[in-house]
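User: Please write out a complete single-protein record containing the residue sequence and its fold in token form, without commentary.

AI:
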Amino acid sequence: MKRLTVNLLIIGVIIAWSLPLSVLAGPVKKEYTLHLATQMPITHTITKAADLMAKRASELSDGKITIKVHPGGAMFSDRQIPEATMSRGCDIGISTANTWAKHARGMSFWEVPFLIPPSVPVGELVKETIPFFDKTLMAKGGKLLGYAYYGYIEGLVTAKKEVKKPSDVNGLKLRIYDRTHLPGFKAFGAAPVVMSSKEVYIGLQRGVLDGALSGLSSIVHRKWMEICKYVIAIPNLVSCPSHPFPIVVNRTVWESMEPAAQKIVMQSAADAAQFAEKDVKEMADKNLETLRSKMTVYKLEVGSPEWNEWKDALSGPGKEKFLKDNPKAGPALVKMIEKLS
């Protein structure tokens, strides 16, 4: 009898795993239309992940949940997306982590230069940080569903001067995307400015910028190689092997949804993250090949003397600024990283 009970339990678990989430969560009774904003181009991994999230939400809800994806900054720029999400200008927002820091202190830690060592498993760090940031976001009007992933190799493109070592940036006007990059680049004589990636092409074209720092995927999809001649590829300047972009839903929207719909949206976000994590790894070499066919590429290897020179130049000043700007959240997040190192 005991063996029969165990066997029936095992069969039950197998059946449960085989059932679609819509059955496990219960059928979705209402219909929902959600607008998702991202600044990334339509061909970028982040946008493809958002499209997959929309597809999965529709499939799992039998068409009751519609997520309309607005890529390329069509609704809002990356800097506008967090505020728009919180105020319900859009229902779901995906943007670079530092843009959410106003609503969740310390969120920019993903982008502090070299703060997260290559040895730290990003997936485990994501699990540690979701409850940490979700609590803060919920108080401000948002719900953290999870993360989509961006490519992990950063590139510094330049129009006229090849950069190989930190001192080569002297005198250059550079676009950066996080304030923790400012002190390191300034120390070597650069004039860095934080600005949206959407504005970079025109800035380079008009000579307002001499170069720009971003992921290789953005450089390819935004076609900066049409203007710039050189790029230095720096692996693990941000978290490796993938760089998390928060997926946040407006809290009022979230709380208006029935539990079955919430479970499906959460699962769809998880499916999008899984797709993006795989896609960024596959695209890393392809992006390098594309850039090598268009411009001069100088790629650093993790742990090499040249890579360590960049790490020494940017990591200390970046971490110091991060901790100064985030006196409460900063030390807690550094401890999470150290625990997983």
Q: What stands out?
A: The two ends are 48 Å apart (CA to CA). The longest strand covers residues 142-150. Residues 153-239+285-340 form a domain with the D-Maltodextrin-Binding Protein; domain 2 fold (CATH 3.40.190.170). The chain has a mean pLDDT of 91.
